[in-house]
Amino acid sequence: MSFRARRPPSPTISHAPFGLSKAPPREHMGADARRDAALRDPGTFPPRKPRFSSGGPLGLEDVEWKLLIAVTVLASFIRLYRISYPDSVVFDEVHFGKFAGRYIQTKYFVDVHPPLAKLLITFAGWAFGYDGQFDFKEIGKHYDPSVPYVAMRMLPAVMGIALVPLAYMTLRGLECRATTALVGSLFVAFENGLITQSRHILLDSPLIFFVGTTTFFWVGFCNEDKHAPFTDEWWAWLALTGFSLGAVLSCKWVGLFTVATVGLSTLRQLWILLGDLRVPPRLWVKHFVGRAICLIGIPIAFYMFMFWIHFAVLQNSGEGDGFMSSEFQHSLGGKGMKDTFADVAYGSKITLRHVNTQGGYLHSHESTYPTGSKQQQITLYPHRDGNNVWEIKHINRDGEDEKKFRDHPLEYLVAGSMIRLEHASTLKHLHSHDFRPPISEVDFQNEVSAYGYKGFRGDGNDNWIVEIENGDSSDSQSGRRVRTLRTHFRLRHQLQGCYLFSHKVKLPDWAYEQQEVTCNKNAIRENSIWFIETNTNDLLPETADKVNYKRPGFFKKFFELQRVMWNTNAGLTDRHTFDSRPDSWPRLRRGINFWMREKRQIYLIGNPFVWWLSTLSVVAYAAVRGFLILRAQRGFNDFNNTMVVKYDNICGFLVMGWFMHYFPFFLMERQLFLHHYFPALYFAILLSCGVFDLLTTILRPRFRLQIAAVVLIIAILNYWYLSPLAYGTQWTRASCNRAKLLRTWDFGCNEFPEDYAAYLVKPSPKAEPVIGGGPAAAPDQAKHAAESELNKVEPGHDVFEKPVEPKAQPSGEDGAPPPVVAQPGEKKKEKEKVAAPAKDVVGQKVGQKPTDNDAVPPVVDGEEHEEEPHDGDHKGVDSPIQGPNVPPAPAPLADAADQKVEKKPDGQA
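Predicted structure:
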C-alpha cells in the first residue's frame, strides 16, 4: 500500500497559493492540480519558495526593513507635526478627555463604548501627572497648564503611526510586491482623515490600529497554516489574532465586524478541510478546537477582563449611577445605605422606587400642573430626597376615620391590601382621577397628582390596591406579603382600575424635566412595577428583620452594563449638524467640523484621491468577479489559472473585510459620522493596492516604480492641498475655495482671511472667538451668519448627555435640601413656560439645566458638574443624544431660565 503526503488545505479566502513556479506547461493548472502534479513528478516541479525572499523575523529583505523604518519616520512627522495645536478642546475630546478624568478620580460613569481605548488614554494622562480635575466642558476651552493633553493626544497618534508599517507588512504577507506594499503604506500615511482623527483624544485611532493588527496576524496565521499547522509559530499567529480581536472589540463594538470578518474566513477554511478526504476527522476536530479556543475564547476573556479593570477602577459613585440598577448603584462607594426594616406595615414611612426605567423614586413637590386638575405634581426623581418619603395610611372599607395605629396591633401589607399614600412633606395623598396627563394625553392615561388640605381625610380617588407581582427566591415570605427590597408589586387604583405607571418621558421645565408618572389602564406590566427601598416604622422593634441590597458579582454587573450600553446605543437617533449616512461615505460627500477659532479650522475630510481610488477598486473587483462568474458559466476555465486564483483570493478577502465593516451601518438608525467608515476604508486602501499589484504584474519593475511614483505624487498633492484642515494651520479664502472639489464639502472658507497678512495682526484680547464655520460661498452677511450657525462646532461623540446634577445639601429629613425661595421674576418665567407645554417637551432646548424648588442650585462655574452616559458615537451641543430618562436634579427656576449647561449623566445626591 502506498501513502501519499497529506494534501495541504485549498487556498483560504485570505491568501492564494503564492510563490509557485511559473513553468509554462503548468500555467493552466489550478492550485490543487499543481499540487497533485508536484506530488506525482517532484523532479520537474521546483520546491515552493518562502513567503518572502529572505530571512528575518517577518521574512523581509534588509533593504525593506530600512525602507519600512523610513516610511515610519515619515508617518511620525505627518502625525506629530504641531500636535500641541490647538491648546484647547477639540471635538469629542469633550467626552473622552473627561472620561480619563473620571477614571483617575475613580468616579463611575457610563459610555456606549467598551473601556480599552479610554483606559489607554487615561494611562497616558496619568503617567504624565494628570489629576483628573480639568472638566473638558466645551469645544474651544483652553487647557490648563496641568493637563498633559499632548501626551494624551500622543497615544492615538502613535497608534496611527503604527498603522503605516502594519499596512506594509500586511500587503507583503498577502505576497504583494514590495512596490505595492510601499504604495499602500504611503496611502495610509497621507490619508487626511486618518491623520486628523489620530491627532486628538479620540477612540478611532486605537480601533483602526487593532483592526490592522488583527488583519496582519490573521494573514500570518493563514500562511503558517498553509505550510506547517500546529507548530509553535502556527499557535503564536493564531493566539495573537485572538488577542487582537479582543482588543478591537474592547475599543468599540464596531470590532464585532472584524470578528465577523475573521469568523467567515475561518468557516471557509474549516469547510475546505472538511471536504479534504485526506484530513481524518480527528485532525479536523483539532483544527476546529484550536481555532475555537484562540478566536472565540481568547477574545471573550480579553473583553471581559477589560470590564473587570473598568469596575476595579470606578469604585465610587459618579454621574453614571442613574443608568444602573439599584443593586449596582449601592455597590459603589458613597451610595450604600443602612439596613432597613424588612416588614412593611400600615404606618410605615417608605420610599417607593420604579423598577423598569431606572427613573428613580416616586416624588412630589409643591409645584402644580399647568393643565388638567392643576393639582400638585407627581414625578419620578432619581436621587434621595425628603420629598420621596410617603407614609402608608390605612382606611376601613366603611369610609370611617383612619385607625389609630398605636391602639391596634401591626397589620402588614399583603396582596389585596388597600392603602393610601400620604406625602410626608406636604401631607397630601397620592391621587388619580379622570383627567388627562399633561404629556400623555390619551384616553387610557389618567393624571396622577397629590391632593388634599388641612383636615381633609381623603376620598375614594386616594385608594390603591396592592397586587404582588413576584418575590425574591431567597425570601420565602416576599411572595405572600410586601417585603422591603424583595417584593415587586403593582398599585391599582380602586375606582379607575388603572395602574400607577411611569415611562421614559420627561416633563417640561415646569416640572424640572423629571419623569412623568400616570395611572394607565393599559399599562405595560414592566412599567407598572414598583418596590420599596427604605422602610421605617416606630412600632417595629429594633430587633425586627432588616434587609439591604444584595451586592452584585462581576458577571451580573458585566451583563447589566452590556444591556445599558446596547439600549443606549440603539437610542442615539438624534440628528447632528455634521452627521451623515453610509451611502455618502464612499463618495466622501462631506466631513466633520472639529474645531474653528482664530481664522483657523480643523475639519475631518479624507484624501480624495486615496478615497475615491479605493472606492473604484471595490467597484472594479465586483465587476470583474461578476464577469468571471459569467465566463465560468459559459465554460471558460479562468479559475484554473494560478494568477487568477491568487488575486481573487487576495481581493476577495479584502472586499469581504470592507463589506463587513461597511454594510452593517445601513441597518442602523442611530447617529452616524464619516469616521465610522475608517475601518472599511483601511480594507479598501489595501484592496486598491491588490488591484495595483495585479494591473502591474506584466510590467517591468522600472515601469512599475514609475507608475507607483505618479500615483503617490497625486496622493501627496491631495494631502498637501487639504493639510491646513488637518493641522489647523494658516489658510486663505481663495485657497480654501480651490480645495473644495465638491460643493457638499462644507468647511468654512468664509472664516479664513483674504490673504496671509491677516495672520500677522494679533486679535484683541476681548475679541470673541470664532466657533463656527459656514459653507463656502456666502454672498451676503446674513446668509453667512446663518450658515455659520448651522455649521458651528459641536462634539460628535454618540453619547447622551444629561443636565448638570448638583449634590444635595443635607438639611432635612433623609438629607432633603431646604426649599428655595422664588426669585423675582420667577413666576413670570414660569408662566411663559406653561403657555406652551407641548413645545417645551418636544422642542425644548437641550442642554438647559433642570430645576426643582426642593433642591439647591448647582454651582455652574466652580462646583463639579455631574454627567451622564454616552456613543461613541456622537452628539452635539445643540442636538445632543439623549440617554436613559433619569430625571435631572432640581435647581431654582431662575437658574433654569437663565443658564445653559451641557447635558450630562446623573450625578449623586
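Summary: The longest strand covers residues 361-368.
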